[in-house]
Amino acid sequence: MRTVIYTHDMEPITVVELRPWQIEYLERHGVVTLAVMPDPARWMSTDEPLAATPMPCVHVAAKWFRHNGERHMLLFTRQEETAMALESEFLPGQRRRLREHEREAFGRGLAAAFGAWGT
């Protein structure tokens, strides 16, 4: 399920994909902790063991409401800066433009590669 995480001031932070077990956990406990996957380049640039590197987390609270007879949830966090680093999802209306952009970028890259190959 794609859902938006908000600040407590109702400012949207990011869109995330929650797995069914995360939603179930939210229904039972009202909060869930989401791990922020660090940049792999950071892991490679240090001699420190991976296990010694603390993984940033975002604590997310759910508020439930009913609209048109259906149950919905809103997600909130106070860890706004860290939440921006969560793996984000695109909304359905954004996906078509993203696919077009990826196709265009692939085409430009392929043309540049063939151009460099021919020289």
3D architecture notes:
With 119 residues, this protein is α+β, with helices and mostly antiparallel strands. It folds into 2 domains: 2-88, no CATH class; 91-119. Helix content is 38%, strand content 29%. The protein contains 4 helices and 5 strands; from the N terminus they run ββαβαββαα. The protein has helices at 20-29, 40-44, 80-83, 92-117, and strands at 2-6, 12-17, 31-35, 57-67, 70-76. Strands 2-1-5-4-3 form a 5-stranded mixed beta sheet.
Gist?
By secondary structure, the protein is α+β, with helices and mostly antiparallel strands.
User: Which structural category fits the helices and strands?
Assistant: alpha+beta
The largest sheet, given as strand count, sense and whether it forms a barrel, is: 5 strands, mixed
Tell me the strand order in the biggest sheet: 2-1-5-4-3
Helix-strand pattern, N to C?
A: EEHEHEEHH
Number of DSSP E strands: 5
Low-pLDDT stretches: none
**Fraction of residues in helix:** 25-40%
Radius of gyration, taken over Cα atoms and rounded to an integer in Å = 20 Å
Share of residues in strands: 25-35%
